[in-house]
Protein backbone atom coordinates (compact mmCIF):
# COMPACT_ATOMS: atom_id res chain seq x y z
CA UNK A 1 0.00 0.00 0.00
CA UNK A 2 1.23 3.52 -0.84
CA UNK A 3 0.73 5.90 2.09
CA UNK A 4 1.28 9.64 2.50
CA UNK A 5 1.73 11.37 5.85
CA UNK A 6 0.07 14.68 6.71
CA UNK A 7 2.39 16.52 9.08
CA UNK A 8 6.00 15.69 9.77
CA UNK A 9 7.31 15.95 13.33
CA UNK A 10 8.33 13.54 16.07
CA UNK A 11 5.05 11.62 16.05
CA UNK A 12 5.23 11.10 12.30
CA UNK A 13 8.66 9.48 12.59
CA UNK A 14 7.16 6.66 14.64
CA UNK A 15 4.32 6.26 12.14
CA UNK A 16 6.86 6.16 9.30
CA UNK A 17 8.58 3.22 11.00
CA UNK A 18 5.27 1.40 11.57
CA UNK A 19 4.32 1.77 7.91
CA UNK A 20 7.67 0.30 6.88
CA UNK A 21 7.27 -2.61 9.30
CA UNK A 22 3.82 -3.28 7.84
CA UNK A 23 5.58 -3.78 4.49
CA UNK A 24 3.84 -0.70 3.13
CA UNK A 25 5.54 2.33 1.59
CA UNK A 26 5.59 6.02 2.48
CA UNK A 27 5.41 7.75 -0.89
CA UNK A 28 4.86 11.31 0.28
CA UNK A 29 4.79 13.82 3.12
CA UNK A 30 2.46 16.81 3.21
CA UNK A 31 3.60 19.60 5.51
CA UNK A 32 3.40 23.39 5.25
CA UNK A 33 7.14 23.66 5.87
CA UNK A 34 7.37 22.83 2.15
CA UNK A 35 6.57 25.65 -0.27
CA UNK A 36 6.05 23.56 -3.39
CA UNK A 37 5.85 20.01 -4.68
CA UNK A 38 9.28 18.36 -4.99
CA UNK A 39 10.89 14.95 -4.81
CA UNK A 40 13.39 13.67 -2.27
CA UNK A 41 14.49 10.31 -3.60
CA UNK A 42 11.28 8.39 -4.25
CA UNK A 43 9.24 10.40 -1.69
CA UNK A 44 7.38 13.56 -2.67
CA UNK A 45 7.26 16.57 -0.34
CA UNK A 46 4.43 19.08 -0.65
CA UNK A 47 2.37 21.68 1.23
CA UNK A 48 -0.79 20.34 2.85
CA UNK A 49 -3.08 22.08 0.37
CA UNK A 50 -1.59 19.90 -2.40
CA UNK A 51 -3.36 16.82 -0.99
CA UNK A 52 -6.31 17.05 -3.36
CA UNK A 53 -4.10 17.62 -6.41
CA UNK A 54 -1.95 14.58 -5.61
CA UNK A 55 -5.01 12.39 -5.03
CA UNK A 56 -6.33 13.35 -8.47
CA UNK A 57 -3.08 12.03 -9.95
CA UNK A 58 -2.98 8.90 -7.77
CA UNK A 59 -6.35 8.19 -6.08
CA UNK A 60 -4.99 4.94 -4.62
CA UNK A 61 -2.74 6.69 -2.08
CA UNK A 62 -3.96 6.33 1.50
CA UNK A 63 -3.44 9.02 4.13
CA UNK A 64 -2.49 9.22 7.81
CA UNK A 65 -2.70 12.48 9.78
CA UNK A 66 0.59 12.13 11.62
CA UNK A 67 0.05 14.92 14.16
CA UNK A 68 0.12 14.11 17.87
CA UNK A 69 -2.10 16.98 19.06
CA UNK A 70 -5.73 15.79 19.20
CA UNK A 71 -7.24 19.20 18.50
CA UNK A 72 -5.02 19.88 15.49
CA UNK A 73 -5.62 16.37 14.16
CA UNK A 74 -9.37 17.05 14.12
CA UNK A 75 -8.88 20.48 12.55
CA UNK A 76 -6.74 18.93 9.81
CA UNK A 77 -9.36 16.29 9.02
CA UNK A 78 -12.00 19.02 8.75
CA UNK A 79 -9.73 21.25 6.67
CA UNK A 80 -9.10 18.52 4.09
CA UNK A 81 -12.80 17.49 4.01
CA UNK A 82 -12.02 14.08 2.54
CA UNK A 83 -14.20 10.99 3.13
CA UNK A 84 -12.90 8.72 5.88
CA UNK A 85 -12.19 6.01 3.28
CA UNK A 86 -9.16 8.00 2.11
CA UNK A 87 -7.40 7.20 5.40
CA UNK A 88 -5.73 4.01 6.54
CA UNK A 89 -4.96 2.41 9.91
CA UNK A 90 -1.36 1.81 11.01
CA UNK A 91 -0.74 -1.09 13.40
CA UNK A 92 2.71 -2.05 14.69
CA UNK A 93 3.45 -5.77 14.19
CA UNK A 94 4.11 -6.23 17.93
CA UNK A 95 0.61 -5.10 18.94
CA UNK A 96 -1.70 -7.80 20.30
CA UNK A 97 -5.20 -7.15 19.01
CA UNK A 98 -8.30 -9.29 19.54
CA UNK A 99 -10.03 -10.45 16.34
CA UNK A 100 -13.27 -9.01 17.75
CA UNK A 101 -11.82 -5.51 18.30
CA UNK A 102 -12.82 -2.76 15.86
CA UNK A 103 -10.35 -0.02 14.90
CA UNK A 104 -11.23 3.11 12.94
CA UNK A 105 -9.57 4.73 9.94
CA UNK A 106 -6.57 6.99 10.46
CA UNK A 107 -5.89 5.43 13.86
CA UNK A 108 -2.35 4.46 14.86
CA UNK A 109 -1.57 1.49 17.14
CA UNK A 110 1.95 1.72 18.55
CA UNK A 111 4.38 -1.06 19.62
CA UNK A 112 3.57 -3.52 22.42
CA UNK A 113 -0.05 -2.41 22.84
CA UNK A 114 -2.82 -4.81 23.88
CA UNK A 115 -6.38 -4.36 22.63
CA UNK A 116 -8.74 -7.00 23.98
CA UNK A 117 -12.11 -8.51 23.07
CA UNK A 118 -14.89 -6.29 21.68
CA UNK A 119 -12.99 -3.05 22.19
CA UNK A 120 -14.07 -0.33 19.75
CA UNK A 121 -11.62 2.42 18.79
CA UNK A 122 -12.66 5.42 16.70
CA UNK A 123 -11.05 7.31 13.82
CA UNK A 124 -7.78 9.28 14.01
CA UNK A 125 -6.95 8.01 17.49
CA UNK A 126 -3.53 7.17 18.95
CA UNK A 127 -3.00 4.10 21.12
CA UNK A 128 0.55 4.69 22.22
CA UNK A 129 3.40 2.37 23.18
CA UNK A 130 2.57 -0.33 25.71
CA UNK A 131 -1.00 0.82 26.40
CA UNK A 132 -3.59 -1.77 27.45
CA UNK A 133 -7.17 -1.44 26.20
CA UNK A 134 -9.24 -4.08 27.96
CA UNK A 135 -12.45 -5.78 26.82
CA UNK A 136 -15.54 -3.76 25.85
CA UNK A 137 -13.84 -0.37 25.87
CA UNK A 138 -15.39 2.34 23.70
CA UNK A 139 -12.82 4.89 22.57
CA UNK A 140 -13.91 7.84 20.44
CA UNK A 141 -12.31 9.81 17.62
CA UNK A 142 -9.20 12.02 18.06
CA UNK A 143 -8.24 10.38 21.36
CA UNK A 144 -4.66 9.86 22.58
CA UNK A 145 -4.01 7.03 25.03
CA UNK A 146 -0.43 7.69 26.12
CA UNK A 147 2.33 5.12 26.73
CA UNK A 148 1.82 2.47 29.42
CA UNK A 149 -1.72 3.57 30.25
CA UNK A 150 -4.28 0.92 31.23
CA UNK A 151 -7.99 1.08 30.56
CA UNK A 152 -9.74 -1.74 32.40
CA UNK A 153 -13.03 -3.29 31.28
CA UNK A 154 -15.97 -1.36 29.81
CA UNK A 155 -14.38 2.10 29.96
CA UNK A 156 -15.87 4.80 27.72
CA UNK A 157 -13.46 7.43 26.38
CA UNK A 158 -15.22 10.19 24.46
CA UNK A 159 -13.92 12.34 21.60
CA UNK A 160 -10.64 14.19 22.01
CA UNK A 161 -9.59 12.82 25.39
CA UNK A 162 -5.87 12.81 26.23
CA UNK A 163 -4.95 10.18 28.81
CA UNK A 164 -1.47 10.85 30.20
CA UNK A 165 1.33 8.29 30.39
CA UNK A 166 1.00 5.43 32.91
CA UNK A 167 -2.56 6.37 33.87
CA UNK A 168 -5.07 3.77 35.05
CA UNK A 169 -8.85 3.87 34.59
CA UNK A 170 -11.05 1.48 36.58
CA UNK A 171 -14.01 -0.39 34.99
CA UNK A 172 -17.17 1.32 33.74
CA UNK A 173 -15.80 4.86 34.02
CA UNK A 174 -16.53 7.52 31.37
CA UNK A 175 -14.00 10.17 30.38
CA UNK A 176 -15.90 13.15 28.94
CA UNK A 177 -15.14 14.84 25.63
CA UNK A 178 -11.82 16.70 25.38
CA UNK A 179 -10.86 16.00 28.97
CA UNK A 180 -7.19 15.62 29.92
CA UNK A 181 -5.99 13.10 32.51
CA UNK A 182 -2.57 13.83 34.00
CA UNK A 183 0.28 11.35 33.72
CA UNK A 184 0.30 8.69 36.42
CA UNK A 185 -3.26 9.39 37.54
CA UNK A 186 -5.76 6.77 38.66
CA UNK A 187 -9.33 7.47 37.56
CA UNK A 188 -11.94 5.88 39.87
CA UNK A 189 -14.99 7.94 38.89
CA UNK A 190 -16.32 9.45 35.67
CA UNK A 191 -14.73 12.71 34.50
CA UNK A 192 -16.82 15.55 32.97
CA UNK A 193 -16.20 17.07 29.55
CA UNK A 194 -13.38 19.58 29.05
CA UNK A 195 -11.63 19.34 32.39
CA UNK A 196 -8.12 18.49 33.49
CA UNK A 197 -7.98 15.84 36.21
CA UNK A 198 -4.85 14.63 38.00
CA UNK A 199 -3.84 12.61 41.01
CA UNK A 200 -4.45 9.43 43.00
CA UNK A 201 -7.39 9.37 42.67
CA UNK A 202 -7.80 11.84 39.81
CA UNK A 203 -9.51 15.09 40.81
CA UNK A 204 -10.60 18.01 38.63
CA UNK A 205 -8.00 20.77 38.68
CA UNK A 206 -8.97 23.00 35.76
CA UNK A 207 -11.87 23.71 33.41
CA UNK A 208 -10.59 23.69 29.84
CA UNK A 209 -11.65 25.97 27.00
CA UNK A 210 -11.40 25.14 23.32
CA UNK A 211 -8.59 27.69 23.07
CA UNK A 212 -6.53 25.57 25.47
CA UNK A 213 -4.17 22.97 24.04
CA UNK A 214 -6.63 20.10 24.36
CA UNK A 215 -4.37 17.71 22.46
TrEMBL record:
<dbReference type="Pfam" id="PF17836">
    <property type="entry name" value="PglD_N"/>
</dbReference>
<dbReference type="InterPro" id="IPR001451">
    <property type="entry name" value="Hexapep"/>
</dbReference>
<keyword id="KW-0808">Transferase</keyword>
<dbReference type="Pfam" id="PF00132">
    <property type="entry name" value="Hexapep"/>
</dbReference>
<dbReference type="InterPro" id="IPR020019">
    <property type="entry name" value="AcTrfase_PglD-like"/>
</dbReference>
<dbReference type="InterPro" id="IPR011004">
    <property type="entry name" value="Trimer_LpxA-like_sf"/>
</dbReference>
<dbReference type="InterPro" id="IPR050179">
    <property type="entry name" value="Trans_hexapeptide_repeat"/>
</dbReference>
<feature type="domain" description="PglD N-terminal">
    <location>
        <begin position="2"/>
        <end position="80"/>
    </location>
</feature>
<protein>
    <submittedName>
        <fullName>Acetyltransferase</fullName>
    </submittedName>
</protein>
<keyword id="KW-0677">Repeat</keyword>
<dbReference type="InterPro" id="IPR018357">
    <property type="entry name" value="Hexapep_transf_CS"/>
</dbReference>
<dbReference type="InterPro" id="IPR041561">
    <property type="entry name" value="PglD_N"/>
</dbReference>
Amino acid sequence: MDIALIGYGGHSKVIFDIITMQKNKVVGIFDDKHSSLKMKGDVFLAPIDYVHDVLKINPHIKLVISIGNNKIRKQMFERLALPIEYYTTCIHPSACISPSAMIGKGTVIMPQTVINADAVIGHHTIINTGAVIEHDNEIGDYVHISPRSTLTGSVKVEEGVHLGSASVVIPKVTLGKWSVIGAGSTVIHSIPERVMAVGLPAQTKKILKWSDDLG
